[in-house]
Design goal:
single chain, 474 residues, mainly alpha, Serine Threonine Protein Phosphatase 5, Tetratricopeptide repeat, Immunoglobulin-like, 3-stranded antiparallel β-sheet, 19 helices, 58% helix, 11% strand
Length: 474
């Protein structure tokens, strides 16, 4: 997911240990409880002998010598409290419910702890602070343990812990956000959207959670886009941009959502406004994508000196950016700067010697400089070329890069105008770093092509720091 993953380092991290196998019981929840018994910090009284005995058993459980003794005393405490509630008219006894929740925490039963705490708080609202403390501490312990599993890629264990955490406490967005990230990375967009929505609702209530609110809204918008719910994505992105109007990436996502929703005019207007804003800033502060957008906008408006500045900066950043070189060469063609046109079209041809557009640009520059002998050589080179290569995509990642395009057949002729029969030709493609050093090399054989026929090209280069490519004939 190009979502923005939000992995929060919550307090009270737990060391790794196996999850409980018993259904409904979470070992980590039990492990995260205070080591010593503490009486309720709110005005509740037992008021019943079975409740009194259960509280005593709970106290003993904290001091049990063995896990078996602890389990036995907790079972005794739970049975006593359940009997008091169901058979001795203690259903409205807040202490019975409160201590039932405390027993459930030590047993690792999140669902029972939640329901019992909820009932106790309904009966004695002044217990809210005490109960919330238990809820939040349990939530933090489970969430932090879940994050450790999430970092390791163990999503099943992470989700199990996150689910119990969200049962214990629902007042903060972080667990819901992390669940959204997990599901988004699993391409379960419906579930991811549901959890990002929960996180957004919570974070919108608290002005101290603006960063959580913003990331939840943006992630939710991205999920809507993935689901094809483009109108919903537009609504959410507009909401987000009201909070973060300077987020260029979000504005791009909004422009894409406009196009996908059949609103090209809105997309064009937004993109134009973005580029105009970029052009008024220090170009050195822009990333290369925005810098290229400024150059294209200036070129289309025939503001060629501005386009030259933008494209030249892009080339300076990456001398092996084919698009930047091509756009800069075309800008020099429009400016009738023939010296520069020859220089940059020649650099293009160093990268892609089988591209007819680059050859034509070179010939135009040579003609403008009255270098007729060079024009003839370039024209001859173009005429005999059996195919042209159109590179349509270049994607880079931390460990690999992918180059895609098409070889398109031409009708080659010799100097006398006689047709040349096409033959297969092998290309050696080099994947290079910013300095032009070769990181990886791949080969592809282009078969004999008739005029107009296409042969797809897709090559993958392996290695870090790949920023460009070039090829040559073998």
């Amino acid at each position: 997911m190009t979502t923005r993953p939000m992995i929060l380092a919550l307090a009270c991290a737990l060391s790794a240990s196996p999850l409980a196998a018993q259904a409904g019981i979470n070992v980590r929840l039990a492990q995260g409880q205070p080591p010593k018994y503490v009486a309720a910090l709110c005005p509740i009284k037992a008021g019943n002998s079975k409740v009194e005995k259960a509280i005593s058993a709970l106290r003993k459980a904290y001091d049990a010598k063995t896990p078996a003794d602890k389990a036995a005393t907790l079972t005794e405490a739970r049975q006593g409290l359940m009997t008091a509630i169901t058979a001795e008219a203690q259903a409205n006894n807040a202490a019975a419910w409160y201590y039932l929740a405390r027993v459930a925490l030590l047993r690792g039963d999140a669902v029972e702890a939640d329901s019992a705490f909820t009932k106790a708080e309904e009966l004695v609202p002044s217990c809210e602070i005490d109960i919330t403390q238990y809820r939040q501490n349990s939530w933090a312990n489970l969430a932090n343990a879940g994050i450790e599993f999430q970092k390791k890629g163990d999503t099943d264990s992470a989700l199990a812990l996150f689910r119990d955490a969200s049962v214990m406490f629902r007042g903060l967005p972080h667990v819901y956000s992390n669940m959204g990230v997990v599901f988004a990375n699993l391409n379960k967009d419906d579930s991811a959207a549901a959890y990002f929505q929960k996180a957004l609702v919570i974070s919108e209530r608290d002005t101290s959670l603006t960063e959580d609110r913003n990331s939840s809204a943006l992630n939710l918008a991205i999920m809507y886009s993935r689901q094809g719910k483009h109108p919903d994505a537009i609504v959410m992105l507009r909401k987000y941009l009201a909070w973060r109007p300077d987020d260029t990436d979000a504005r791009r996502v909004l422009a894409s959502a406009f196009r996908a929703a059949g609103m090209p005019d809105s997309a064009d207007a937004l993109e134009t406004a973005m580029v105009e804003a970029f052009s008024k800033t220090n170009l050195d502060s822009l990333d290369t994508q925005d810098l290229m957008a400024v150059g294209v906008s200036a070129f289309n408006a025939k503001r060629y000196p501005e386009a030259e500045t933008a494209f030249a900066k892009a080339v300076q950043r990456n001398p092996w950016s084919r698009d930047a070189l091509y756009n800069l060469a075309n800008t020099y063609f429009a400016m009738k700067n023939h010296e520069k046109l020859v220089e940059y079209s020649a650099r293009l041809l160093e990268m892609e010697p089988m591209n007819e557009d680059a050859l034509r640009l070179l010939a135009q520059g040579q003609r403008g400089l009255n270098r007729e002998d060079e024009v003839i050589k370039t024209a001859t080179r173009l005429v005999v070329m059996p195919f042209t290569i159109d590179i349509t995509g270049f994607q880079t990642g931390p460990a690999k890069a992918i180059l895609t395009g098409d070889a398109i057949g031409r009708a080659p002729e010799d100097a006398a105008g006689k047709p040349i029969k096409p033959v297969p030709m092998t290309l050696v493609v080099e994947f290079i770093d910013i300095k032009g050093s070769v990181i990886d090399t791949e080969e592809i054989t282009v078969p004999a092509l008739k005029k107009g026929d296409k042969h797809p090209i897709k090559l993958e280069g392996t290695g870090a720091a790949i920023t460009g490519w070039r090829y040559k004939t073998k």
